[in-house]
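As a warm-up, study this chain.
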Amino acid sequence: MPGFGLVYSTSRGAICPECGQAVGCCVCKKTKSAAVSHAGGVRLRYEKGRKGNGMTFISGLLLNEEELLELAGRLKRCFGTGGSVKEGVIELQGDLRLRAGDELRKRGFVK
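Now compare it with the structure written out below.
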């Protein structure tokens, strides 16, 4: 359905303008790249917490809460670590910026 007018749905999150699917389910690679650049890009940062334990934070993904939870689960299984999703940000235990960046690149979220 080219030229789909809806760009955001509270139930599905960001909508692909080309196919009308949620951006996380979209098969249009160029749309995912455009959505990421429109959002200012995906950001990965590392912060030391209490007792020296660090966390990797992934923000800027144009996904709804359900899709973020699914992606976080896949990343946690892939890296063998714990984590959660809070306020639209994926939190992973440990310094996983490089590995997470590579994995997100493979999935089309980062150029």
